[in-house]
Description:
Structural class of chain A: alpha/beta
Shape of chain A: globular
Oligomer: homodimer
Largest sheet of chain A: 7 strands, mixed
Number of strands of chain A: 15
Radius of gyration of chain A: 25 Å
CATH superfamily of the largest domain in chain A: Dihydroxyacetone kinase, domain 1
Number of domains of chain A: 2
Largest interface: A-B, 60 and 60 residues
Distance between the termini of chain A: 55 Å
Amino acid sequence: MTRLFNDPSEFAEEARLGVVAAHPDKLMAVPGGVVRSTRSKPGTVAVVIGGGSGHYPAFSGLVGQGLAHGAAMGNLFSSPSSQQVYSVAKAAHNGGGVLLTFGNYAGDVLHFGQARERLIKEGIPCEIVLVTDDISSASLEEIEKRRGIAGDLTVFKAASAAAEAGATLAEVVAVAAEANRRTRSFGVAFDGCTLPGAGDALFHVPAGRMALGLGIHGEPGISEQEVPTADQLAELLVARLLDEVPDGIPLNGARVAPILNGLGTVKYEELFVIYRRVDALLRDAGLTIVEPDVGELVTSLDMAGVSLTLFWLDDEMETLWRAPANTPAYRKGSVMVAEALDPAEFQQSLEREVPGASEASRQLAGGVLKALEILVETVDANADELGRIDAVAGDGDHGIGMQRGCHAALEAAREARDRQAGAETLLSFAADAWADRAGGTSGAIWGVILTSIGEALGDQQPLNAQRLAAGVSAAGSNVMSFGKARLGDKTLVDVLVPFGECLNEQAAQGSGVAWQIAAQRAQQAAEATAELLPKVGRARPLAEKSLGTPDAGAVSLSMIIRALTPLIKSCD
Amino acid sequence: MTRLFNDPSEFAEEARLGVVAAHPDKLMAVPGGVVRSTRSKPGTVAVVIGGGSGHYPAFSGLVGQGLAHGAAMGNLFSSPSSQQVYSVAKAAHNGGGVLLTFGNYAGDVLHFGQARERLIKEGIPCEIVLVTDDISSASLEEIEKRRGIAGDLTVFKAASAAAEAGATLAEVVAVAAEANRRTRSFGVAFDGCTLPGAGDALFHVPAGRMALGLGIHGEPGISEQEVPTADQLAELLVARLLDEVPDGIPLNGARVAPILNGLGTVKYEELFVIYRRVDALLRDAGLTIVEPDVGELVTSLDMAGVSLTLFWLDDEMETLWRAPANTPAYRKGSVMVAEALDPAEFQQSLEREVPGASEASRQLAGGVLKALEILVETVDANADELGRIDAVAGDGDHGIGMQRGCHAALEAAREARDRQAGAETLLSFAADAWADRAGGTSGAIWGVILTSIGEALGDQQPLNAQRLAAGVSAAGSNVMSFGKARLGDKTLVDVLVPFGECLNEQAAQGSGVAWQIAAQRAQQAAEATAELLPKVGRARPLAEKSLGTPDAGAVSLSMIIRALTPLIKSCD
């Protein structure tokens, strides 16, 4: 079980800071994840990987020379927000465009996709290649639906080696897709992992049993059997994979790079006992083994499981697989250590441009800044109360987290105002600062809210009721998709969605910015949520409340909406 | 728990073969462990590390350029035999002498010590430096009694970097001793590990509690408390270590290399969360941090625990710590990959010399060869029966293991005879072959028996009752010390010791080689052991029966003694 943590909702963020502290020669923290702290060749493609945290060395441990340029790091087992992905990609971008590559999970597909759109809008060429190596997660007919597991590594490695060698974005995309086509994995599990602070494991496999094809987050497997011997397991894994050799590869004489991966508590000696037999079986099948990897390469906290990956090589893939790499958790070959980036200079290069805005939008931006000031006053005045509410079902730090986030957001918004930003840009500065400084899911969610509203307002138009209403509704949808919460889960979604609906109804009726009416609806929703608080208690495992501190979040959102009423009324 | 294995008694050996299969570019299997598969600079000191298996990457994962030259690998949590250490050191020796360095455990101290004597006898300069970093295992006044834990790494690394740079054996010894003096560790544990096939963990810590100073094999700790937060644990570990800074190091401005080590199931993200705080605390204390290591560097199968090591650097130690290394589990800096050894040529270089022997001893060697032939016939004739007996309390493979070992021993003995070996050398050839080919503890024990008798017989003298009796008694003592079994544990010790005593009594009375009388005593002892077999059953955990398949071993030893009676009588 996972025993050592502080505030469970800060676990992923604290781990991110720790991995950077342990590897300053390779990693640099940027909002949303990490990038290399060494200089890459200008003009080369940046390979940006990522996904939920809890899978170390995926993903931050695979950033460094010869492997990824950056990793977007979400909360535990949760996709990073599109903002996090965007921020990391922006920092990793090196003039040659960006490849986003990651395991095929719905949340990741959505948020990396949104980030890609934002990058392209800013003129940064960006493509996506999904990893789909897990043969037990869908049939060959639906190969595109398969999940990505330890085969992530072969795709990341091949694409990154190609990028390092100066390939264009189109070439890197082709390499990544071909590496994915040539990669197949099969996994088994013996027990699930425990999230920090949870009373029990995320899932269980009955004692003495082995689940075949169980996903690394507990996604359903295909069957169950008794725990076999190490040799029997090796035989099972090899047989499954030899049964599905990718098209066009004659089995005899083929070259493979095997990866025998432990998920967390299947330890090294066990892996070596199994690998001993895997090695013999692959040789017996007439295969040539190229640079195998045996160890913990994609974990799931303390999950008990193991997977075998075969990467079927041709000359090009073999060259890319053998290419040197130097990351916190993955090294091969002789790497000449690259020049360290100067953090100050690097930060400067990350300075955001402010796109041109209309006079009307700059005025609107001024109004938004006032709204943020009121928001900060409201949060400051109620921080203790929010902490108290949060302590009922959460960790009691909601007030502190909100304060940290909104003060950072206000500061960034003032900078944007001073630089003549329009409403969208000002909200985007504020959103990034909030998500970055508040940390955790709650910070990311407020980033999503501000970004969504900003995108609806734009940098050119004056305030308009329909656009504002549409922005609030988009914020509701995006928060649900990001935080995995549905309406009725007693989270801030229960306030945000009816608030947006009410705004939209009124706007459709031509009632202007009907903030006051909608604010009443929001407050009713928050009260309904708050009433339930004592009944909810601390019983729900963290996994179910992936919004971090959701219930207090509903209350704080409704407070903020109410506090903004006089301001918004005044511009009605 | 450890779930994946075949025959539990073969687990360590199969893991050894697996780690070599996974890392052929770095490791080569030799009898008793592994050595580098790359060429080292001739004339440099060889650093040989080792200890029980179950601690990967200690010890095979730390063999390679810039780190150790070889690792002697015992059974799970059991010291390697002196023969294994000798064999690995012999293979690793590079013309500059050998440093044996390992954690301070009684079994290791004994067997590495015996190996050292044997190496020196053969003209190979050899020294020992013990690692004693665990501050909770003894007081500062008894610092030499402290155990070695994750601080192994700093001593191995500093000594190996010095050896790589061409230091003499005396210089490497001085570096290793100074690195040990400058290294302090403190560990905590949350639960014990499970040996393959055992029904329960080797030890437990009560749920929700943390044991301070608990050893990596469950050696008693110093106190127990509730599991703290990650930050509180960081504070505890740092405070303990800052409380015992090695002599002569002013705290402010000092340089340290921290190692935050996970024992097996405290996973990476937890380690990074803790390290984040450790890093801040060390900086707050005015220390400069040099190349920290955070990860799994010395494990104990699936033990839940963590330790912090501080290596207090001066200029020399910092240079050695920063030096490049390239091993299966430990890499830093830019390493030019060294030339691969040609396995055939390497095997040739390992060919053993046959020391000169007297005519009398060569004749005696002929008699020993006949004894080995009888031994082989006896084992072959009774292999099925031995398997059946072993199946009662063991894994049923005792017959097969004995056959594998004794046939290899006979073949090696014939080669020695053809090369004019004396009795000691012939038995030593046979012993090494048996231990190497039979594998497991039972093979190692027969190696100890044959070596002990050989050493008593020598290469110069004719057969003599006292010397033979002394050899058998030495075999009994050495087996007890190696296998951790005592008289009365119902193992082959219960046969070997009374047999030796009887021989000694008779020899003291001038009764010549009183084999027949002693053989009767041995048989009675074996019968007493065998009678208990059905009562012993499979209940005893593997850890308690560290002799592997002890009960069947008592029976086979007595069979062999009985079968030898006509031969030994004839030379009476």
